[in-house]
């Protein structure tokens, strides 16, 4: 019974993360300001990382955990560079 509860919990989490990713894409495309679009991108990469982690829990393969680590690192760098660009107008000084 414990495996069934884990399975359905992971399926529910994946479906909620998919809805959250769709809402983040909506915010990225329809954001009234550039700051809203950066926030949508930030939310999108966090949700993508969590979705990869749930895939890793579901399948038991470690490649999903490594991919989630790479997505989180690249997403952080992208968010910082976009925020710096919005504040100063250039990324590399």
From TrEMBL:
Membrane topology summary: Multi-pass membrane protein
Record-level GO cellular component terms: plasma membrane
Keywords: Cell membrane, Membrane, Transmembrane, Transmembrane helix, Transport
GO molecular function: sodium:proton antiporter activity
InterPro entries hit by this protein: MrpF/PhaF-like
Pfam family membership, one: MrpF_PhaF
Top-rank taxon: Bacteria
Residue ranges of the TM segments: 6-26, 38-57, 63-87
Location in the cell: Cell membrane
Predominant location: membrane
Family from the record: Belongs to the CPA3 antiporters (TC 2.A.63) subunit F family.
PANTHER family the record matches: NA(+)/H(+) ANTIPORTER SUBUNIT F1, NA(+)_H(+) ANTIPORTER SUBUNIT F
The protein's name: Multicomponent K+:H+ antiporter subunit F
Provenance organism: Allorhizobium borbori
């Amino acid at each position: 019974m414990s495996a069934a509860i884990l399975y359905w919990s992971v399926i529910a989490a994946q479906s909620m993360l998919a809805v959250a990713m769709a809402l983040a894409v909506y915010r990225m495309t329809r954001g009234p300001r550039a700051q809203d679009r950066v926030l949508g991108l930030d939310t999108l990469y966090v949700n993508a990382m969590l979705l990869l982690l749930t895939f890793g829990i579901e399948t038991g393969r470690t490649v999903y955990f490594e991919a989630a680590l790479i997505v989180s690192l690249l997403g952080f760098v992208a968010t910082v560079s976009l925020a710096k660009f919005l504040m100063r107008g250039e990324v590399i000084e």
